[in-house]
Amino acid sequence: MGDFPALSLGCYPTPLEKLENLSKKYGVQFYVKREDLSGPGFGGNKVRKLRYLLAEALKRNATHVLTYGAHQTNHGRETAACCRKLGIKPLLFLLSPSEELMPLGNLILNCLMDCEIHMEPLKPKNNVYESLQRLKTRAEERILEIERLGGVCYEIPAGGMNPLGCLGYTEALIEIQEQAKQAGFIPDYIAHASGTGGTLSGLLSGVAMIGSSAQILSFSVDQEPENKTETIIDHVTAVLKMLGHEPVDEAILVKQVQLISGYFGEGYERPTSGAADAIKELAVEEGLFLDPVYTGKAMYGLLELVKKKTIPPESRVIFLHTGGGPALFAERDITGFDFLDSN
Ligand SMILES: *Cc1c(COP(=O)(O)O)cnc(C)c1O
Q: Does ligand 1 lie within 6 Å of residue 45's CB atom?
C-alpha cells in the first residue's frame, strides 16, 4: 500500500464464503472471511501484517527476528513460519501461565520450527499486553549478544501491532469491500476478535480511505487497557499519514465501530463455556473450526447480538476468521466429551 512494499507471502485474496446453514438457522446473512487460510504455518491474521513488517526486516538485512506473545501465541507461530521461509532465525519471548507447561498446540509447532524460545511467568490478573513489557528487558540483553556476534536483529511488537503492520488490514478492508461487491451485497456489519487492536486500526484506516457503511463489531478477548480507544485512533492517524491521506474526524471513526468487551471471561487464553458452545456450533453447522482464544469468543458474542435482535434479521454480517486453529489442540477439555462414558 502506498509507498510501502509488501512481500508476496501468503495466499491472497483469502476466500469470502457464505455460511448457508448458520444463515438459515438465524435468519441473518452470515459470511466468513477466511483469514485462517492465509498460508504460512497454518495461516491467520498476522500474515498480512508480516508481509509489511518482514519487508522492512529484509530491507535492514535482518538475520534474526524477535517477537512477543502468550505461550499459545498465534502471532509467534505465524512470524516463525514466515521467517523460516525467508531464511531468518525466529526468537520468541513468551509469557507462560504455569510452571509445568506442556508442549501443546502452537507450542509444538514453534518447537518444530526450532524457534529460540524464552519463557517468563505470567502473573495472574495481569493484562497480557502489559505483562509483555517484562520480557522486553530480557530481549534487549539477547539483542546485544546477537549484535556482538555480527547478527542484525529486527524486533516486531506483540501481535505485529504498529502502524506498518496495520497496513495489512487497511488492505484487507479494501479486499473485503471488493469481494462483497462482486458477490452482490453490501455488508451491514464486519465482526472480528480484537487483541492488540492492530487488526481494528487497519480496518478503520481502510474505512477512512474508501468509506464503508458497515459497522465494525470488535470483540475484545482480554481486559482492555483504559487507553485502547486512544491507541487505536493514534494508529489510524499514523496509517493515514503514511498513506498520504487526509486525517479523519475522530467522532466519525468512533461512530463506525463498537468495542464490545463482555465476552473474554476470566481473561486472555482462558476458555469460556460460551466460546466452547460457539466452537461446537460452527463445527456442527458448517464444518468450520474456530479457536478458543479469539474467534470462539467473538462468535459467541456475535450470536448473542443476533439472538437479541440487536443485529436485525436479514442483516449481512461478515465474520473475520482470524485463525488460531492450532490452539484448539491445547484445549482437550473443550469437547466436553467423556470417552469412557461414550458407549
Ligand atoms: C492475534 C489474533 C487476533 C487479534 O488481532 P489483533 O490485531 O491483535 O487485534 C484475533 N484472532 C486471532 C486468531 C489472532 O491470532
A: yes
